[in-house]
Amino acid sequence: MSWGDVVASDQALREAYAEVHHLAEWSPWLPFETARAAAPREPGVYLLRETGSGLIRYVGMAGERAGGGRPQGLYGRLSVYWTGKGAVSGFGEAALDRALADPIWVEQQLRDLHERGPRRAKDWARDAVSRLGLEVSWSVTPDRGDALYLEEQVIARPRGHGLWNR
Question: Strand, helix or coil at 17?
């Protein structure tokens, strides 16, 4: 599915996505689980969208934070969510909120608790992210300041069209 393949009848949303597309040079859409390994260790902005509908659900940014002595950038940010360590920030919180509102998911977690015993909160958060089956696209920026600016510009376009950003 490409940028123009949004399954939405809302012309305003299609136009907003076209504006987002033209704000920066974006990577191809990749499944979240493979995008993390391919993401650069540079600052930038990432988009998370639903696979079937093409609806962008979350817009985030990553700066130059270093972990273990080398910059982590987009790779680091996506890794934080994929490992469940970002459970109470940004996208991790949005994913966990949606999972906890799904009685079927909660019931499965409770069955797992009874059968296998307790798990760490980050494991629940990782499962919450994984269950969404989202795709990721990103744009690299020169530095954190440019990433913040691009993030603001992107969020302003589809605001009111189902973004999970607060």
Answer: helix
Range of the domain at 89: 11-156
Amino acid at 148: L
Instruction: Give the number of domains in the chain.
Output: 1
Tell which residue, 87, 18, 95, has the closest CA to residue 54.
18
Residue 73 lies in a domain: yes
* Confidence (pTM): 0.87
DSSP3 helix / strand / coil % (the chain, rounded to 5): 50, 15, 35
1 belongs to a structural domain:
no
Query: What is the rounded distance in angstroms from the CA atom of residue 96 to the CA atom of residue 75?
Result: 21
pLDDT in tens, 66-116: 656 666 899 999 999 988 888 888 898 999 999 999 999 999 999 999 999
